[in-house]
Amino acid sequence: MDSHEITMEKIVSLCKRRGFVFQSSEIYGGQAGAWDYGPIGIELKKNIQNAWWKEMTQLHDNIVGLDAAILMHPRVWEASGHVANFSDPLVDCKQCKMRYRADTMDQDALAAKKCPSCGGELTEPRAFNLMFKTHIGPAEDTASIVYLRPETAQGIYVNYKNIVQSNRMKVPFGIAQVGKAFRNEIVTKNFIFRTCEFEQMEMQFFVKPGEDDKWFQYWRDQRWSFYKKYGIRMEKLRWYHHEKLAHYAKDAYDIEYEFPMGFQELEGIHNRTNFDLTQHTEYAGKDLQYIDQDNGAERYIPYIIETSAGLTRNLLMFLCDAYEEQNVAKEGEPEDYRTVLHFHPKIAPITVAVLPLMKKDGLAELAKEIQNELKEDFVTDYDQSGTIGKRYRRQDEVGTPFCITVDHDTKEDGTVTIRFRDSMEQVRVSRSELVQRLRDEIKNYQSPSREPRS
Questions:
Q1: What are phi and psi of 292, to 5 degrees?
Q2: CA 1 to chain centre
């Protein structure tokens, strides 16, 4: 195996070492399936969310936002089918107590009722609902049951009529939301890829029946373009077409990314028909028809095109795609590898690092002064510890696209050095022009070409 191959172990190690992601409750041995986002990780997550939000709302005149409550009326989940159908078939080993999903384990072992781990006898498969159940109020009875939402979409559907009326929305229109969801996953694995607590970025687009195929293709194109826009390597992405559809779906595609563990789902684009609004009409006893005032007060229940992406899964994808162990040695010199994250500047947790060449001669004070000038426009970092080369490497490792070096010439002529992460090239720029130059570099950024690597 290539020692510089990207592995999940390397990503996990980098995340802990540099403050991207920590194991939840680590000092107590850790909580399986739960992760905390550190100072660098929360900036990365926030930037990905902001990029998605801009793409889905600011750049579209007919899409608005929502932040629905995590706790909803339990009838919502009856109407959606989650109470009856949101379950995995499970088997347990009577000897070692290991638990398996019957639909994903070796079918010969399942038929023989033989545990893959110890060879012990397996129980019969039984359904296990993935929703977390809790109670509101002091009495733990059936009347007080509520669920932690297993998806964010239903909050959009039950507010659809409110948004139509309050914001005078006209079909076609969309409602976007970013929020936490919870699933009582039996198997949590691959770091933050599959967890019990996660965040979704969803947009539900309401269209007239008969126009759904057109909008389904439109949103497939839009979502593919998003990843290209932010520099994801296109050879790492592919479409997966669902042959076996969910009960609510007319058509469904996933965008899959080639993670270190292989191609896995990144985002789903689904034609959900009018199933959800029809169900809520029946269960709530409310008329959720759309009244088209521009077309003779025509009434219909809209079809819904859904785009649903995992925010935390996107974060893992951006990390994996940006990661490179790059040999920066010149020809004829010994190999010299740097770890670098090639984030798009709009995604990078830190945009600009300000580095005084040395602490003395007033350079540290001058560098802090320049950092304070940049803070209004960019997320900045300041580092005066170690050689300038080591400081560059530290910034490369967290994906900082620009380093500003302050030296003695800065005191003399008011110029600084911009060092570019991807090319490692350096240019001299007037301090007075620095903010505009950085803005231009971000606006015109082109992702570097890289050799394909596993």
A1: -85, 95
A2: 29
CA 67 to CA 177: how far, in whole Å?
A: 6
Return the structure tokens found at 226.
């998003």
For the chain, how big is the Rg over CA atoms in Å? 26
The bridge status of strand 402-406 relative to strand 415-420 is: antiparallel
Find out whether 98 and 117 touch, Cβ atoms under 8 Å.
yes
Query: Residue 330's CB: how many other CB atoms inside 10 A?
Result: 6
CA-based nearest residue to 249, from 269, 222, 265: 269
Integer Cα distance of 287 and 305 in angstroms: 21
The answer to whether 315 and 200 are in contact (CB under 8 A) is no
Whole-number Å distance between alpha carbons of 170 and 444: 36
Cis peptide before 448 (omega within 30 of 0): no
Q: For residue 343, what are its two tokens? A: 């984030």
How does pLDDT run across 55-85, given as a tens digit for each residue? 999 999 999 999 999 999 999 999 998 887 7
User: pLDDT (tens digit, 9 = 90+) per residue, 199-251?
Assistant: 999 999 999 999 999 999 999 999 999 999 999 999 999 999 999 888 889 99
Instruction: Give the integer Cα–Cα distance in Å for 309 and 232.
Output: 15
**CA 131 to CA 146: how far, in whole Å?**
10
Alpha-carbon gap, residue 65 to 166, rounded angstroms: 13
The three-point CA angle 130-137-78 to 5° equals 35
Distance CA 333, CA 82 (A): 61
Q: How far is CA 22 from CA 34, 186, 423, in A?
A: 9, 21, 30
* CB 280, CB 286: distance < 8 Å: yes
> 108-165, pLDDT tens digit by residue?
878 888 888 888 899 888 877 788 888 998 877 777 889 999 999 999 999 999 999 9
